[in-house]
Amino acid sequence: MSLIPDDLKYTKDHEWVRMETDLIACCGITDHAQEMLTDIVFVELPEINAEVKSGEQIAVVESVKAVSDVFSPVSGRILEINKTLEDSPELVNTSPYGEGWICKIEIKNPREMNDLMDASAYNSHVEAGD
Fold first, then answer.
1. Sequence spans of domains, the chain
2. In this structure, are residues 103 and 59 in contact, taking their beta carbons and an 8 Å threshold?
3. Is 98 exposed, middle or buried (0-12, 13-18, 19+ CB in 10 A)?
4. What CATH number has the domain spanning 9-109?
């Protein structure tokens, strides 16, 4: 069973968001997503300072099984990327909510966080097989 931390927000596409400050969000893919992908062998990271919109593709995760797009959960500017994933993409598997984070986004509109699911809603989404 997938781990779904209570302190994060989630998208229907299996990304998570952790607010680090009022305007800075750390993002990655969920434990459920990495389980579905299996062994991750490559992560294509977004460009620093790129302007992104909620729902827009920002990264690509490649596993032995599939290639999957990662979508931005919020609109804003890419502030930081997890360069460690370039040499250790498996961190997305072993620590999806910790060392396997993908990027940090300076949020343009904090109200977009209200459009994301809490842990309970995301759990229902996963259980429904979406």
1. 9-109
2. yes
3. exposed
4. 2.40.50.100
Q: What pLDDT is stored for residue 43 in this prediction?
A: 98
Q: What is the pLDDT of residue 129?
A: 86
Q: How many angstroms separate the CA atoms of 90 and 130, rounded?
A: 24
Dist CA 43 CA 75 (whole Å): 21
54 phi, psi to nearest 5 deg: -55, 130
How confident is the model over 5-64, as pLDDT tens digits? 999 999 999 999 999 999 999 999 999 999 999 999 999 999 999 999 999 999 999 999
